[in-house]
Sequence to fold (295 residues):
Amino acid sequence: MTNIGFIGLGNMGGPMAANLVKAGHNVMGFDLSEDARTAFESLGGTTATSAIEAVQNATIVITMLPAGKHVEAVYCGEGGLIAASKPDTLFLDSSTIDVDTARKVAKIATDSGRMMMDTPVSGGVAAAAAGTLTFMCGGSDEAFAKGKDILDIIGANIIHAGKSGSGQAAKICNNMMLGIQMISVCEAFAMADGLELERQKLFDISSAASGQCWSLTTYCPVPGPIATTPANNDYEPGFAVAMMLKDLRLAADAAESVGVNTAIGQKAKELYEAMSQAGLDGKDFSGYFEFMSQK
Ligand code: NAD
Fold:
């Protein structure tokens, strides 16, 4: 049994922490939101009155927070998790944040003698509840070896991406591909409609041809071919436009910081921004099909 501190018990963190409790670990959770704390308690979890209290006796601390500014504020400074934790603590930050902040916070942690990995995830709330997330880990071999057993409980694929920040790099590279691919599949179906090619036929053909990709074969953005996709449920998420936009903005900033021209990634960001401006932040990102069809 491991003593685990878990900060950020929201849509993702709540079910992840609950799965660790179910596996028999001693999890002390904390979230600023009383609702999130109550929900975790109702799943058998124990909550602390502060983030610091939640990590004081932990050997592993997992954080699942909205963005880089929250991560930096929670970890750093005199009142932060690093200063409050035991000297042999391993920190796993599963939030999706920018590479620079991930590296900055990890350096502060490692300079203090502790270990830290960025461990962002792929897979949404359903995968968090099912314990089937993919973890992309950035940190030392030693940190990966120490964290893997715990991540194995809440994930199906635990991959060591490389040094600190590499997990976040993998996450934004992957989600930039996803955002672009989804737009391309939506455009292809809209074109098929105009050309009087049946949607099911395009699905069958491209699923077995070179246009094949996850956005088509697993998450098809038009109603019909795959019964369980958001397209068959009024584009309820799933993976919301706001989340996709967050990741594409991180990707755009990262591309600029390393001087790489991601022209199509930028364009995809602009298209989801248009959806967001139309009030569709809370809809699934595959709803781009309906959005573009209505214009
Ligand atoms: P969420 O908003 O549901 O949860 C974040 C939680 O952090 C909230 O409950 C909030 O109260 C809490 N929080 C914020 N600041 C805090 C602080 N200082 N101390 C303690 N708690 C604090 O968000 P989520 O959907 O769980 O996403 C969390 C992270 O996971 C994000 O970085 C997101 O990009 C990433 N992610 C989300 C999904 C998804 O499908 N929801 C998928 C992959 C990755």
Observations:
- The domain at 3-163 is CATH 3.40.50.720 (Rossmann fold).
- The chain has a mean pLDDT of 97.
- The two ends are 56 Å apart (CA to CA).
